[in-house]
Each structure stands twice: as structure tokens, then as C-alpha cells.
Amino acid sequence: MRKLPALFLLAALCLAQSGRRPDIDRSMLDPTCKPCDDFWRYATGGWADTHPIPADRARWGTFDELRDNNLERLRTILDAASSHSSAKGDERRVGDYYASCMNSASIESAGAKPLKPSLDRIAAIRTRQDLTALLTSLELDNAIGPHRIGGMPDPDDTNRTIAAVSTGGLSLPERDYYLRDDARSKTIRDEFVQHVQRTLVLLGDTPASATAAAQTVLSFETTLADVTLSNVARRDPYQRTHKMDFAKLEALSPAYDWKGAFKLTNVPVTVPINVEAPDFLKAVDRQLREAPVETWKTWLRWRLVNDRSQYLSKAFYDEWFRFEQNVLSGVSAQLPRWKVCVTQTDAALGEALGRLYVEKYFPPAAQRRMQQLVENLRQSLGEQLQAADWLQPDTRANALRKLQKFDPRIGFPVKWHDYSSVQISRAGYLASKQSADLERRRFNLAKIGKTVDRTEWNMTPPTVNASYSPPMNAITFPAGILQSPFFDLNADDAANYGAIGAVIGHEMGHGFDDQGSKFDADGNLKNWWTDQDRAKFEVRAGCVTNQFDSIDLGERLHHTGKLVTGEAMGDLGGLTLAYKAYHRSLEGKEAPVVDGFTGDQRFFLSFARVWGGSQRPEAMRRQLATDPHPLAKYRTNATLQNMPEFHAAFACKLGDAMVRRAEQQCRLW
Prior knowledge:
Elements: H1 6-18, H2 39-50, E1 59-61, H3 62-83, H4 89-102, H5 104-110, H6 116-123, H7 128-137, E2 147-154, E3 157-167, H8 176-179, H9 183-202, H10 207-225, H11 231-234, E4 243-244, H12 246-252, H13 258-264, E5 273-275, H14 278-290, H15 293-308, H16 314-329, H17 337-348, H18 350-361, H19 364-387, H20 393-404, E6 407-411, H21 429-445, E7 467-469, E8 474-478, H22 493-510, H23 531-549, H24 561-585, H25 599-609, E9 613-615, H26 617-626, H27 632-640, H28 644-649
Helix pairs in contact: 3-4, 3-17, 3-18, 4-17, 4-18, 4-21, 6-15, 9-10, 9-16, 10-15, 17-18, 19-20, 19-22, 19-24, 22-24, 22-25, 23-24, 24-27
């Protein structure tokens, strides 16, 4: 037996006594790659090589593996609930909903019949008045029309909820899919036309009429895309904030029946209204006055069936999958039905399912440990802000106030949503879904004109993700993400700080990124910077933008720097903060060397491993076009290229790929 070094034995003993383990799996590593050449590959290449992308996935990584494992946990709950004949309350609801989704025989026998009442209403349209009346009636439906009424915290006073008019109407992932002129975009549009044609044939249209209708749909949606904000523009809250009263809304779009829509949704016309995109509403108004009624009818039929296809018989689901998953993301096989149904149950009844999930899988000790980690990072960020000598006193005081008012939400909400009004039938999957959608829609509309409830969550407890809400100034970490490889009660501190610590820091960082920094401590859209400090901040944000703009991904592909700046700032600021918090937790002590890795090395390896994995080329292109998050490899490498702490930990030097020149390194504080 190999004799272990005394230092290793001492470290192992200390870890055993503390109840924590190092949690670095050497099989994940690619030892043939030098950490200073490509740290992402070094830290995760072994895992990627032994975990190919499953046929039913667009990508596969450690993040996805955790989500998949979580589906198994939720399936255990739902299988039990659906087979428990005397179940009541939330258990009965989620069990029945899951069973309705799994009832393939009932779904198949129904075919397209669930759409008939809505299709008949569309077919009955004869005049523009009929058209407006139908569009108005769709305000309670789920994302069918080109715009809809909702609620939002008032950008000037986030303690109250005002009305909001948001935009929609596009079937492709985002506006530039309609407008770009490259060969791939043209191919996708051709595929989209074929997809619309095949779907309408399933509704009973002749191939010839369906082909003409598909061209009409593309043309109509291209008109909408032309006045839709770009993904980059949508990131700027000022470009989406246009408050007005009801009279101005009517003047902006007089062809629509706003009085009828507000009456149907039970929204008072006396509340302020934020219009996300006034130019879009003007364009829709023009279409209501000028586009042929038959064009609108064709488009509405498509929008209806497109929205429902996933919940209809196999022929519709297969066609939805062929385009949405295969053409757009490169996925070649469908998910097992149970995974679809678990996901849909979480989407429809997330807090009902979440309550059962938390009871079974989220111990109170995990919540307490997360609270400690969050507080340590909060204090560390406070120290960073205090030490930022480029901030003037007024800006620093405002930043510290915002930090102190962060609302951390860990595991699950303090009160649970009531789903008692949702009507669920095991023999009616689509009807059950529509009932859940309608209940949620009415619940959210009822908030308009009232005080904001700051205890509500925007994520379900089983979700494997985290978030920051600028209007709420809240950071949320659902129970679903609080598992390995992100968080482990028994793991070494280096592992927890490198993984979930970086996530905590990332979400805190969103409060101070290029867009989150435009909201004050109370969540109001209000400038709290001096002009000089804001200009200096923009230079620091611009460094990150320029870094991602300059990354060559091959095949003439690249990130859009202004699209990914916020998430990239979150990664850089979050990891820097987590590193400081980790060293703060050591209280001046030296972390042990474990299995040949120092504490700092384990910290950075733990960060990199959550981004391990592979992605299909189609999915990568889709992400680059639509997603504000950088590709996983660059969430790791581009972040670490800016960190001298990482360079020191792995003895990287200038000239190595993982080291940017000092004057090029981006620093946020």
C-alpha cells in the first residue's frame, strides 16, 4: 500500500472530524490538458468524454445531470400521489395532473377536438369588429395574441402594482430569426414554413391551402418582428419603460378595444400603465386597420394550434418536436413521457409539487447553511464596496444600502400558493392545463392596483436554477439547486464556495451589473450614481463586453457582447466575491492540501465543474442568438482569464491562454 503523506493524512482527519469531504472527483479531469491552456477542459474534460449527449437532449452537462436526477425525485412523489386513491389537497391535485398528462390513450382519442371551440370562433370572424372582439376575448388566454395586459411593480414605486402591456406574437425564438439574411437563417425560415404547413394539414387543411397559409404566417410575423425590440434592447429597462394613462394607451392604439380588454381582465382603467414597446402597438394597430381579416384568421389559427400542439395527440406532438427540438436545437429523440409530465406538472402546479418536494428532500440544515453562506458573501461584498476607491461617498452609500436591502430567498417561499380553484381531470390533459393557466392569469391580474406582495416567488422550489429580481431586489435559491455539484452539507468549504458561493455571488452581482445597477435599493428604476462614477462603471462593464465580442468561436460565430454582458459580469463579480468570502471563512488559517490540491485549487475546480458538458451545434447557435448567458466554456475560461487569484493558484503566467494582459483584465470593484 502506498504510504500517504503526513499532510494528506492530517487534512483527511480534519475533514472527517468536521463532517465534510473534499468533493473533487479526479475522473472529471483531463490530465492531458494543462490548466493554464484551457481550464474548462482540464477541469471537466474527463467527465465530458465519458458522458456523451443523450439523443433526447440539446446539451448534456453536470447542470443537466442534476436536473435529470431531480426529475427522478419528483417522479417518485408524483407516482405515489397519482396512485394514492385517498390523497387530498395538493397531493391529489399534482397526482391527478400528472396522471392526466400520462393518460396517452385519452389524449390520443381526443385528437384536435379540444381546439374545436376556439377554431370555430376564429372561423366565425367576418368583420374587423369581429376580429377585435375575438382578440379582446383572448386576453385571458395564454400568449395567443400579439400583445396582452398584465401587471408589474411600478418602476417609480415598486410597492404598488400597475398595469403593463407586453408584446409577443412571434413563433420563432426571437426577432432576428425573421430578419437575418444568412443561409442558415433562410433554411430555418423554410423549415418553419413547412412546419406550419404540416401542422395545419393535421387540422384538416388541404396541402395547397396549408402551404399558402404558412407563407401568410411567415409574412405576418416578419412584419411584427420588424418592430419587435432586439434581445440587446430588451435588456435595457429604460427601453421597456413607457408609463402612460388609459387615454394615452387608447390614443396609441385606437383600433383595439382596450375598454373591453380591461373590463374582461378586471383591471381598473385608473391605474398607470406601462407599455413595453409603443412602436409595436402602433404597428399592430395598423395591421388591425389594414391587414386583410383573412390574414388575421390564418395567423390566429396557427397561433392557437402552435400553442397547444405539445398537449395534443401524438401527430401534433411529433410535428412540434420535429421543428422546435430537432430543427432548432439538433435533438433527435423525444424525452420519455414521464419526464415531459413531471416537467409540465412543475410548470402548472409548481408550489403544490414544491411543498411535497421540500418535505421529502430539503432538510432545514441545508437552509441554515445557505443562510450562513449568503451572509458571508453579503459581508464580503460590503467590504469590496467599501474598498472601491473609485466610488464617491454618495455612490458608495447608495450601493451599500442596496446591498443591505437584498432579500435572500432560500429553498421555498414563506407562504404557499393556493390552487384550490384549479379544475383537474385525469381524462382531460389540455383542459387541466388551461385551468391552471387561467387560475394563474387571474391571480396575477388581481394584483394590479394593489400593494406588491414581496413574499411571492418567481421560481418553483424544485427548480435547478437561481435568480435576481431588480424590482424586488431579491435573490432566490430554490431547493432544487441546493444539491451537488452546487451545494453539499458534507462538502469541503472550498467546494461549496466555489460552486454555490459563485452562484450566490452571481445573483448578488446582478444587482450591480450593467442593467441591475439602474435600480435602487428599493427596486425603483432610478439613477443612484454620480455622473463620474457611472462613467467609470460603464468603462468596467465595457471591458467585459469587449472581451466577449473578441472571442473567436470558429465558423464566423461569436457572442454578442452587449447581450451577454450582464451574465458575464455576474460570473466575474460572483466568483471574485465567492473567493473573498471563502478566504474570509478560513479566518486567517491555511486551507489543507487534499489529494494534491490546495484550497484555492479546489475552489476553482468546483467552479469549473458546474459548467462541464457538451452541446449540439444547433443548440449552440440558438443560444448565441437568444440567450444572455455565454457558452459554458467561456463562463469558465473568460471569467478566470481576468482573475490573478486563479493564475496564482495554478502558476499560470503571461503568455498562457488563461492569462490576459494586466491592462486587459476586467475588474468590477
